[in-house]
Design goal:
The chain has 236 residues and is mainly β. The protein is built from one helix and 19 strands.
Length: 236
């Protein structure tokens, strides 16, 4: 009998009694728009990945197996100091440095009528009658294990107000806000807070269910678990 094999891996070989030997080219199509499909007579089908890079740093390049190569105009990434979208501007449309205003009373310093003692002045530190003490404002991640992202020392005024300025990469992100003092129990915000250009968070808002504020979340001062509600909180 005749052997129809043409020793070409790119053909399907056979023999028809009526018409004789045939060699039909095989299809190497893998239905993937991100590969170049071809056939080598010695080894058969092969599939080379397409390089989607268009050499333009202002596009995000990639390939979808169904639709093929794409080039998406880059968008600005806030806070990295780079002109990501190649429009000649850096961090345009971004919040440069978010401002966080935190209000809280420290129980041991509170004298009533929305005022605390000027503790630093009373201790012979400085001459400013509007300042109570320094506090630490801490931003924690909003997911377990609630790691510390940033801790910033701030002046706490006698009216309970305090302000810090954060780096641009905090804009638009959500954090638990914690306040640490040298004369009170650490407190956290009841829920994560999304930071905008200017964000106000007030721990002094009254809660009819008990002392403190409805914006406060009690924590265990040992394990810092924001869902453990056994410990005391700072209150007016």
């Amino acid at each position: 009998s005749i052997s129809p094999d043409d020793f070409n891996a790119c053909t399907e070989d056979g023999c028809d009694p009526a018409s004789g030997v045939y060699h039909i080219p095989i299809s190497c199509d893998d239905n993937n728009m991100c590969t170049i499909d071809a056939c080598d007579p010695a080894t058969g089908c092969y599939y080379a990945s397409i390089n989607p890079d268009d050499g333009n740093p202002c596009t995000i390049d990639g390939c979808d197996p169904v639709s093929g190569v794409y080039h998406i105009p880059a968008t600005e990434i806030c806070g990295n100091g780079i002109d990501d979208d190649c429009d000649g501007l850096v961090d345009e449309g971004c919040i440069s440095n978010p401002v966080l205003n935190v209000s809280v009373y420290i129980e041991g310093f509170y004298t009533g009528s929305g005022v605390m003692q000027p503790v630093l002045l009373n201790a012979g530190v400085g001459t400013d009658t509007s300042v109570t003490d320094t506090i630490l404002i801490v931003l924690h991640a909003d997911t377990v294990p609630f790691d510390v992202d940033t801790a910033v020392a701030a002046i706490l005024n006698v009216n309970g107000s305090s302000t810090i300025t954060l780096s641009a990469n905090h804009a638009g992100k959500s954090y638990y806000i914690a306040v640490v003092t040298r004369n009170g129990i650490e407190i956290w915000s009841k829920l994560p807070v999304t930071l905008g250009a200017v964000t106000d968070y007030d721990f002094r808002i009254s809660d009819i269910s008990g002392p403190g504020g409805q914006n406060q979340l009690r924590i265990n001062s040992i394990n810092k678990n924001p869902f453990n509600r056994r410990s005391k909180i700072i209150k007016p």
